[in-house]
Amino acid sequence: MPQEIVPEEQYIAGSRLERILRAGRFAVTAELNPPDSADPQEVYDAALVLSRVCDAINATDASGANCHMSSVAICALLTRAGYEPVMQVSCRDRNRIAVQGDVLGGAAMGVKNLLCLTGDDVSAGDQPESKRVFDLDSIHLLRTVKIMRDQGQYLSGRKINHPPRLFLGAAINPFVQPYEWRPLRLAKKIEAGANFIQTQYCFDLSRFRTFMKRVRDLGIDQKVCILVGVGPLRSDRAAEFMRTKIPGVVIPDEIVDRLRKAPKEKKQEVGKQICVEVIQQVREIKGVAGIHVMAYRQEELVAEIIEEAGLLPRPRQPKAPDEDPFRPDRKWKRKSSD
Q1: Which of 252, 267, 283, 327 is at 20 to 30 A from 317, Cα to Cα?
Q2: What φ, ψ does residue 144 adopt, rounded to 5°?
Q3: DSSP 159
């Protein structure tokens, strides 16, 4: 955990996630799998499951270069309901004008956590004929938002009347070559403005321990909060698909073999147990401040994983205003006139 406990008046954004990390608590975040739907109920159903065991919920931004409900829209729904979102912003689909507008829009809705991503190339998705933008990359995006937040101006130099207060995040992948360059890449993202980090899926614990040792040797763990990416594997076939089709995902042979040897009806349970074991081991690594759970289409397992890993109870979620009909303790219902 970086630095000493920071007084609340020195918080950057005052988000729930920031408060937990600054207080030295082991944080838990999770991704909300965005629906292929215009029905907000699908977002609320998924968020209700995650909010009970997580400190913040990531709203993904067309991850894998596949289209789903937008991150901005999901954050609008989550903040209205009193949940704590992490708004993901990818550089793949927007130029700097659109990105800066989305950042202000998210902050206006109550978003206080922002994850800056370059984004998967369009060739990874199901619409590879799409045009790439990549006006910025993740490091330039971090710098852009830091300028907006700390200097109160756009990249053009024009003044922002009310600058956004944002706890800035970035992603790293310690599991791909060149390994020796990954800690240095992390340092660049911190210099650009990253306050917290969420990693790619961690299945190779040996490689991650080596990475974290180098991070500690460089003193980087004192400058940023590192949340390790974890997730359950549904089967050996799912593991093979992930490590061959999803860029940046590394799954050692021994994990795939363990899933392959499990009876068909037990494969999902074994995948969940592997995830729990990874969490328990990364908790013991110095410099790790939390975990980030990515359970694609398996949100129902997140609560079990967090409980079995010994991470409950979580701090209570802030209560939404009583007059808000979208409070997390109430089911969302359409009006009869809809």
Answers
A1: 283
A2: -60, -50
A3: B
The token duo for 267 is: 């494969």
Cα–Cα dist 23/78, whole Å: 24
Phi, psi of 11, deg, nearest 5: -65, 145
Longest CA span, the chain: 62
Q: What's the CATH class of domain 8-232+288-308?
A: alpha beta
Q: CA-to-CA distance for 2 and 216, rounded, in angstroms?
A: 11
For 191, the token pair is: 């210099």
Axis crossing angle, helix 182-192 with helix 138-150, rounded to the nearest 10:
20
Summarised one tens digit per residue, pLDDT across range 315-325 is: 764 443 343 33
Predicted confidence band of residue 63 (pLDDT cuts 50, 70, 90): confident
How far apart are alpha carbons 195 and 150 in whole angstroms?
Answer: 13
pTM for the predicted model, two decimal places: 0.90
The residue behind tokens 């990364």 is 282
Calculate the alpha carbon distances from 227 to 30, 144, 182, 201, 279 in Å.
11, 23, 15, 11, 11
Q: Is 221 helix (H, G, I), strand (E, B) or coil?
A: helix
Domain ranges of the chain: 8-232+288-308
Token output for 179: 């390994």
How high is the pLDDT of residue 316?
A: 63
323-326, long-range: CB < 8 A, 24+ apart = 324/80, 324/81, 324/82, 326/44, 326/77, 326/80, 326/81, 326/82
End-to-end CA distance of the chain: 49
Per-residue pLDDT averaged across 172-185, rounded?
96
